[in-house]
Amino acid sequence: MAITLKSARQIELLRESGQLVRETFELLRTQIRPGITTLELDAIAEDFIRSRGAEPVYKGYVPQRRRGWPATPPFPGTICASVNDVICHGIPSKKIRLRQGDIIGIDIGLRLNGWIGDACETFPVGEIDEATQRLLDTARYCLELGIEQAHPGKTLGDIGAVIQRYAEGNGFSVVREYTGHGLGRNLHEDPTILHYGEPGTGRKIMTGMVFTIEPMVNAGVAETKLERDGWTVRTADGKRSAQFEHTLAITDQGPLLLTA
After folding, report:
1. What confidence tier does 2 reach under pLDDT thresholds 50, 70, 90?
2. Which of the chain's ends, N or C, has fewer CB atoms near its CB within 10 Å?
3. CB burial class (10 A; 0-12, 13-18, 19+) of residue 130?
4. In a domain, 201, yes or no
5. Which residues contact 207 (CB under 8 A, 6 or more apart)?
6. Going by C-beta distance under 8 Å and a sequence separation of 6 or more, which residues neighbour residue 204?
7. Is 121 annotated to bind ligand?
8. Assigned domain for 204 exists
9. Tens digits of per-residue pLDDT, 139-191?
10. For residues 164 and 160, what is the distance between their CA atoms, to the nearest angstrom?
11. CA angle (121, 126, 128) in 5-degree steps
């Protein structure tokens, strides 16, 4: 598929969607505490998103089927709520109650006036131990490093390379199977953004591109396992994982964060 470059007006509309994602995060931040369930957080997010005239884009989402993979049922939640060793796509549940010392990755996608907003943030639940804080700090900095590479004339491989180098240089690993992606009127568009790779490889970055960078950084091995629900992805060794994601637009001056 060809990459659809966005106009300045389209980027502004995407920024409005991204800002609503950010407002939803700021609301959830006040609610994350020991004892709350991930389903309660999901309801808070859905009510807020709909109250602002937007719709949750994950709810009922069915991904394009990958060759050799089983069909995936529609996603049942407004947010992805990924606790501790869940890397991504955690399904909100009344059975999952947050505990002191947990971490929870919350991924929010919505559509406002026909345009998508998408971002992820990993939150501590109360006080966390030093090793977990280091995981969060590393994952957040990996995102920042990737964003710094997102300038016209650079390549997508430059983004993945700096993320991989920093994560692995600090004793962590980067998930390979799940990637960043272009977006616009659709949640998933070209290009695909790998969070590993070689500098100078891949497509050239061009003004008008809009895509996410969303490295998933594991405390242990990079390998993953998919639960029987068809969505929940865990670390293969049971160690924790953290993810931070922004949507950005490429301008002549460099990256413009739409979800900051």
Report:
1. confident
2. N
3. exposed
4. yes
5. 5, 152, 250, 251, 252
6. 153, 154, 155
7. no
8. yes
9. 999 999 999 999 999 999 999 999 999 999 999 999 999 999 999 999 999 99
10. 6
11. 80
Q: Count the domains in the chain.
A: 1
Q: Which two tokens stand for residue 213?
A: 């960078």
CB 213 within 8 A of CB 143: yes
Is 214 annotated among the ligand-binding residues? yes
Helix axes 156-169, 130-148, angle to 10 degrees: 160
**Would the annotation count 188 as a binding residue?**
yes
Q: Which two structure tokens, joined as six digits, stand for 149?
A: 């590479």
Paired with 212 in beta bridges are 247
CATH number at 75 reads 3.90.230.10
With tokens 């937007």, the residue in question is 54
Is position 1 within any domain?
no
- The residue range of the domain holding 37 is 8-257
Contacts of 242 (CB under 8 A, 6+ apart): 103, 105, 122, 135, 136, 138, 139, 140, 216, 217
Query: DSSP labels for 131-191?
Result: HHHHHHHHHHHHHHHHHHT-STTSBHHHHHHHHHHHHHHTT-EE-SSS-EEE-SSSSSEEE
Q: Is 107 annotated as a binding residue?
A: yes
The arithmetic mean of pLDDT across residues 184-211, rounded, is 97
pLDDT above 70 as % of the chain:
97
Place of tokens 């609301």: 27
- pLDDT tens, position by position, 99-147: 999 999 999 999 999 999 999 999 999 999 999 999 999 999 999 999 9
Enter the tokens of residue 82: 């990924």
> What's the whole-model pTM score?
0.96
74 in a domain, yes or no?
yes
